Amino acid sequence: MNLAYKKSGTGQVPLVLLHGLFASKENFHGLSRKLSDDFTVYAPDLRNHGESFHDPDMSYQVMAADLAAFIEETGIAPAMVFGHSVGGKTAMELALSRPELLRALVVEDIAPKRYPPRLEREVRALAELPLGEFTQRSEAEQWMIKRLGNPAVARFLLKNMVSEKDDGFSLRLNIEGIQNNLEKLLDFPQSSRSYHGRVLFIRGGASDYILDEDLPLLQGCFPDFRIETLEGASHWVHAEQSENVAGLVRGLL
Predict the structure, then answer these.
(1) Exposed/middle/buried for residue 158 (C-beta within 10 Å: 0-12, 13-18, 19+)
(2) pLDDT tens digits for 120-166?
(3) Active site residue 122
């Protein structure tokens, strides 16, 4: 198996949850629990994240190929696939390249387009984190808060810092690989392909990742799509409104 993953739930329909950049399978714990009666939930770590392998290539084509191999090797095709942010772009690329592996697609707060530069500060902060200087996690947290000015973002990023047996710290994610591929991750492979299965886009009302002007693009790639806006939610819709997100996913059954 090429991707580390967590499996939960007892439902008949297989559901694959794909996390976003800097996250891991652990970030879907709450949503997985809410969906466990209706689905058998598979939450893999994308390459260069969590407990999955490190690799210098992070194009959406290779990450979609990872996901295709995962679905085939676990024998769960056709599966419902849910992806957030980078995971959403990976899921869209899979739907466009291997549509037979999906029964439906849910995309959380991301569009199949190129985004302007963002996240450089966070990537640079992780890359320059002086792991050898810390004896306690709280020291790393204070360093990151001072660097970024946002305690919530600092704590989220530091979920990737793990303790070593010699009492030091290391990063689980491949920050060098992410840094070298950030331009690819902000982009999306453009083509004339389309996926004709059911697609649900969920966007946060307080997020700017899916704009009204993007709707024709969604229609071109995914003719059978609908979009739901959860007012008050930011880019992290599943974390802030997990019950509403779970209800929308159940609605696809």
Answers:
(1) buried
(2) 999 999 999 999 999 999 999 999 999 999 999 999 999 999 998 77
(3) no
pLDDT at 118: 86
CB 103 within 8 A of CB 110: no
* 164 carries an active-site annotation: no
Q: Domain coordinates of the chain in residue numbers?
A: 5-115+187-251, 120-180
Q: Tokens representing 119?
A: 């996240």
Options 24, 32, 52, 85, the catalytic residue: 85
| Residue 207 is among the residues annotated as catalytic for this protein | no
d(CA 44, CA 78): 17
Fold of 5-115+187-251: Rossmann fold (3.40.50)
List all residues 6 or more positions away from 45 whose beta carbon is below 8 Å from its beta carbon: 3, 4, 5, 19, 24, 25, 51, 52
Candidate list 141, 176, 228, 240, residue with the active-site label:
176
Catalytic residue among 93, 235, 238, 242: 235
Any idea which residue has 């200087």 for tokens? 133
Q: Model-level pTM? A: 0.96
Can you tell me the mean pLDDT for 179-193? 94
Q: How far apart are CA 154 and CA 174, in angstroms?
A: 17
